[in-house]
Design brief:
The chain is α/β, with parallel strands linked by helices and 799 residues long. The protein is built from 27 helices and 25 strands. Strands 1, 4, 5, 6, 9, 10, 11 and 12 form an 8-stranded parallel beta sheet that branches. The protein has a 7-stranded parallel beta sheet with strand order 15-14-13-16-17-18-19, sandwiched between helices. Strands 22-21-20-23-24-25 form a 6-stranded parallel beta sheet, with helices on both faces. Strand 5, helix 3 and strand 6 form a beta-alpha-beta unit. The protein binds zinc ion. Zinc ion binds next to loops. The site of zinc ion has 5 residues, from loops.
């Protein structure tokens, strides 16, 4: 092999290895690999060393080691002679900072280095796709709440820092294993387009251009090697393409630098990334093949499998300690450094994520929730939890209610102002809530006037005129969380098997369903709702995909819909000791205890399918006579039944968590549900559930993972599923762990607030952009009964 072109320091001038070395192994010759020398911003792969730390590391090398050019070290190895303490510095990829930041420091310490250049990237603005992915996902730029890659049949939520890091890591991994070189640019531009980013992306980490490359190569300290053309996993390519990567990248470099290129660093560098064929190609041309196997050098050294060790962003003392360790000690320090990657990224990313809680002037964002907050059902509880989570996040989040709030709530009440002259006619004709005037006048209320966003919750509690929605949504960004189907049907909160809401209602099969009608006004109510929605600007949130799909097929379908699952306090609803829980509740320690929780009691509440639970219990008792059922949430005067323990409704969540923890199985036969909190709470306490496939329940109970889902109203299947689990304590224990883990990943309150933040951002942006308008009603389209002075005043504000 020819003598290498740049040998700035003669061997005899170099210092001998330090006498104080910590053992033979730590003095074994070493090839170091760096990538970037710059101030690390987001450095997800930990490949960036700051100039200050690089300076300190070079000082350690100059003081304690024998720095030599890579090719000289390899020549020595070839001749069977390794000098202890020898170190060669190398760089991979070909970043501009190698020239701008690293070279001056190498010159300062007179330390030679070899730079492996990816020729196909030289002078490109987009640089390396890994850096672009990092820039897309990890820098906190505004992104839509979800990314779907249909060709991979995968999708990722993108709201929280954790979700973005997961998406980044998984997509990066997929790209690395799936795509040979040509696919990257298209994939990255597709991602940018899909995520609503401007195309023609410029890498945050610039690569060398030709001029910089030539200037870098002109330094007597620098040797240039090849890192291939495309920086793909070469083992993915066929033999001919591999040969091209080697031959053409070397020719390209030699033509520009006018000197031979004698070494090639495999992209990624682990043995699975280069093939036997590639080794053979290099051997034939007498080119050294440099890998990324984390080891020091020893003889004999196979010249197409030369190992290197990655250097991290360590300061001088940490680097010296790493250098002085043996290979096992260096591995341990490396692991410790890498283990900080995810927490560091998450901390940085959480700081950078768009936060709506504070406005540009530093004042908190004001959100006014318009709702009922009454009743002990899940909807009111969910709203209260969201408000608490938002306050914890820095929002000025408050509730304004049209009905008297329960004691202990600081909600502000507005007067629904039912017009007495209209009230009787509206009741007679089934014109639900058309007589209320108070909601038309909300625009003048201070809590609406100073709000940055209005968040409608349950509007059908009997206080809100449906026509108010249009005018209010013209004034403020508006988000509306639906808890049931009432907004998309003529009247009913749940249509069960009826699908007439898709086409216009009328001929209603069941006028008795809540909220109930005296006459069949459903067609007219449906038409009026449609008219209102066509003249409103709303962002719809549903707690389940089941409801979201219905909304998309409905009169609300023209508005964007986001699914945000309900959440619970997973710290309160956590598994408790079962024996203690049973002792506290006076439940038998050895019996099989099933249970359910519902307002009014699961056995008595018709919507919760009480009759089906009763039938299932009878069948289960045939095999297990001692079985006990906890009827939780029942009224104080609930009937006494054998084998049933009545536990009246409690607002004490600690007690409720104790109850869930005392049970063996949650039995849920609800007939209409969107996203029941009681199921979420049960799972969060590690209680597996058996349930009918009702509404959004199968999205909560993952069949086979944390419970079993059986067909709607099929008691036999439910009994079979329950028996299956009761006979298998091991399976139940596994499901219990899975339920808890799933709850922590899916139902946390801080996630809920973060997910709403993404929807708020969209609503605020859209209201500011005026892309989607909120047009005035055509003069004669609005029914006479609606055209009151209060309505007309609100309507006037649109102009
Ligand atoms: Zn590389």
């Amino acid at each position: 092999m020819p003598a290498h072109s740049c040998t700035p320091v003669r061997p005899d001038e170099r210092r001998a290895p330090a006498a104080s070395s910590s053992g033979a192994d730590s003095q074994a010759p070493l090839i170091l690999v760096y990538h970037r020398v710059a101030e690390p911003g987001v450095d997800n792969q930990l490949l960036c060393v700051s100039p200050a730390n690089f300076d300190a590391q070079l000082a350690v090398l100059a003081r304690t080691r024998r720095p030599v050019p890579l090719m000289e070290l390899l020549d020595e190895a070839r001749s069977g002679r390794l000098v202890p303490g020898s170190v060669a510095v190398t760089f991979d990829d070909g970043y501009a900072d190698n020239y701008l930041n690293a070279l001056p420091l190498l010159e300062k310490h007179s330390i030679p280095a070899t730079v492996f250049v990816t020729t196909g990237r030289v002078g490109t603005a987009e640089g390396f796709w890994g850096d672009i992915l990092e820039d897309i996902f990890l820098t906190g730029r505004p992104l839509p709440p979800r990314l779907e890659i249909p060709q991979w049949e995968r999708s990722w939520p993108l709201t929280t820092a954790e979700e973005r890091l997961r998406a980044h890591d998984e997509i990066r991994y997929e790209l690395k294993i799936r795509l040979p070189h040509d696919g990257f640019p298209e994939m990255v531009s597709w991602l940018q387009k899909t995520l609503g980013m401007p195309g023609g992306h410029v890498s945050p980490n610039p690569v060398l251009d030709q001029d910089e490359l030539c200037r870098l190569a002109a330094s007597p300290l620098i040797t240039i090697g090849s890192h291939g053309i495309s920086h793909c996993r070469l083992s993915l390519l066929d033999d001919a393409a591999q040969a091209r990567e080697v031959a053409e990248s070397i020719e390209w470099l030699e033509a520009r630098l006018h000197r031979p290129v004698e070494c090639f660093a495999y992209p990624y560098g682990t043995p699975d990334c280069y093939s036997e064929e590639l080794r053979r190609l290099l051997r034939e041309r007498e080119i050294a093949g440099i890998a990324n196997v984390q080891a020091s050098l020893c003889l004999p050294l196979p010249l197409q499998d030369v190992p290197r060790r990655l250097v991290r962003n360590w300061d001088g003392p940490a680097f010296a300690a790493w250098l002085d360790a043996d290979d096992a000690g260096r591995d341990a320090l490396e692991r410790k450094t890498v283990s900080r990657r995810a927490p560091d990224i998450l901390r940085g990313l959480s700081r950078r994520l768009p936060r709506l809680a504070q406005k540009a002037d530093g004042s908190p964002m004001r959100v006014t929730h318009i709702t009922t907050l009454v009743g002990q059902g899940g909807a009111a509880k969910s709203t209260q939890r969201l408000i608490a989570a938002q306050r914890a996040r820095g929002y000025d989040s408050r509730a304004m209610v049209g009905l008297v709030p329960p004691p202990g709530h600081d909600a502000c009440r507005f007067d629904p102002q039912e017009d007495p002259e209209l009230a009787e006619a509206c009741r007679r004709e089934g014109l639900l809530y058309y007589a209320f005037q108070g909601s038309h006048r909300l625009h003048a209320h201070p809590l609406v006037q100073d709000a940055d966003l209005l968040h409608f919750q349950n509007l059908h509690g009997g206080f809100f005129n449906p026509f108010s929605l249009s005018g209010l949504s013209a004034l403020k960004p508006c988000v509306w969380t639906l808890r049931d189907m009432q907004s998309i049907t003529g009247a009913c909160a749940h249509s069960f098997a009826c699908e007439r809401w898709k086409e216009g209602c009328g001929d209603c099969p069941d006028l008795g369903i809540y909220p109930g009608l005296p006459v069949d006004s459903t067609a007219r109510l449906w038409r009026d709702k449609k008219l209102v929605y066509e003249h409103s600007r709303l962002h719809i949130v549903t707690p389940s995909e089941w409801l979201a799909q219905k909304v998309r097929q409905s009169i609300l379908g023209m508005h964007p819909v986001t699914t945000i699952t309900n959440a619970t306090d997973t710290d309160v609803f956590r598994p408790r000791d079962r024996a203690e829980a049973r002792a506290r509740l006076g439940l038998p320690q050895d019996a099989v205890v099933l249970g359910a929780v519902a307002h009014g009691g699961p056995l008595e509440n018709a919507w919760k399918g009480g009759a089906y639970t009763v039938a299932a219990l009878e069948a289960l008792r045939a095999a297990c006579p001692d079985l006990v059922f906890a009827n939780v949430g029942c009224r104080d005067d609930a009937p006494v039944r054998p084998g049933v323990v009545n536990i009246p409704h409690t607002g004490d969540e600690d007690l409720l968590a104790t109850i869930y923890s005392a049970l063996d199985l949650f039995i849920y036969t609800s007939l209409a549900d969107t996203c029941p909190l009681v199921v979420i709470e049960a799972l969060s306490c590690g209680l597996p559930a058996v349930s009918f496939a009702t509404g959004g329940v199968p999205e909560l109970v993952r069949h086979g993972t944390d419970g079993l889902i059986t067909p709607y109203k099929d008691v036999d299947a439910l009994v079979q599923a329950a028996s299956h689990l009761l006979e298998r304590p091991g399976l139940r224990a596994r499901m219990s762990r899975a339920a808890r883990e799933g709850a922590l990943a899916r139902f946390r309150l801080d996630h809920l607030a973060a997910k709403y933040e993404a929807v708020y951002a969209e609503a605020v942006r859209e209201a500011a952009g005026k892309a989607r308008r909120c047009p005035p009603f055509p003069p004669h389209a609005v029914p006479e009964v609606i055209r009151t002075p209060a309505f007309l005043e609100l309507e006037k504000l649109k102009h």
